[in-house]
Amino acid sequence: MSELNLILLGPPGAGKGTQAEKLTEDFGLPYIGTGELLRRHKSEGTELGREAAGYMDNGDLVPDELVIRMILDEIEDKGRDGFLLDGYPRNLEQADALGEALEESGRSLTAALLIDADDETVIQRLSGRRQCRNGHVYHVLFNPPKNEGFCELDGTKLVQREDDKPETVKRRLKTYHEHTEPLIDYYEERGLLRRFDGTRDAGEVNDHIRATLAMLRLEERL
Ligand SMILES: [Zn+2]
């Protein structure tokens, strides 16, 4: 069986999380989210986690080299058939560093999956999200609760997360356009980019991605 070594790209709110969940189910690939990975290392007090905590506690960014070591450990541990990497790389330097590290470990990327959406769609999707304290998510337009402002499952109050406030969303989009969007050309030049329309229905996007990955596997076998 050929490996599927994948990274996910795209603006916040394009549906990367939803697609990642479906893909890990469909293909049995381990999901590697760097935010989650850092938190886990930190809370488990691993050597890498303690090192990272030193930077985080000082308000500094965790160096790329350290994050990449965590990613490679994870791949070695669970990624025999491939992996789905989310949240890394976020800029060109990180993309280079990741490519080199993978090469050294005898692997290469199969594809960079871009789930794209325009700013207007992202702002509408994210700024309409409301969440209860138990993590149940609604949307004022697309999935409103029966009782406005309250969770249907536990009756607790719905609030807007800081991350979903329009000002925050606009700031996140700006960072994405400046630093992460150049990765689209980067992976396109290397023949690795696959584009998906994240403004479509999540099921449709998933079908499209699955068809693309099936094709990639076939091509590798030929
Ligand atoms: Zn709830």
Compile the SSE list and pairings.
Blueprint: E1 4-9, H1 16-27, E2 31-33, H2 34-44, H3 47-57, H4 64-78, E3 82-86, H5 92-104, E4 111-116, H6 119-127, E5 129-131, E6 137-139, H7 166-180, H8 182-189, E7 193-197, H9 202-221
Parallel strand pairs: 1-3, 1-4, 2-3, 4-7
Antiparallel strand pairs: 5-6
Zinc ion is lined by residues 132, 134, 136, 151, 153-154, 156.
Main sheet attributes: strand count, strand direction, barrel closure:
5 strands, parallel
Q: Give the spatial strand order of the biggest sheet.
A: 2-3-1-4-7
Number of helices: 9
User: Regions with pLDDT < 50 over 5+ consecutive residues?
Assistant: none
State the helicity in percent bands: 40-55%
Taken in chain order, the helices and strands follow as EHEHHHEHEHEEHHEH
Which hetero compounds are present in the coordinates? zinc ion
Distance between the termini: 12 Å
Which assembly state applies to the chains in this document? single chain
Q: DSSP strand (E) fraction?
A: 5-15%
Q: Based on DSSP secondary structure assignment, what is the total number of beta strands?
A: 7
Instruction: Please tell me what the overall shape is.
Output: globular
Which class of secondary structure composition applies to the elements?
alpha/beta
Radius of gyration: 18 Å
> What's the average pLDDT?
93
Which structural traits does this protein have?
single chain; 222 residues; alpha/beta; 5-stranded parallel sheet; two-stranded antiparallel sheet; 7 strands; 14% strand; binds zinc ion
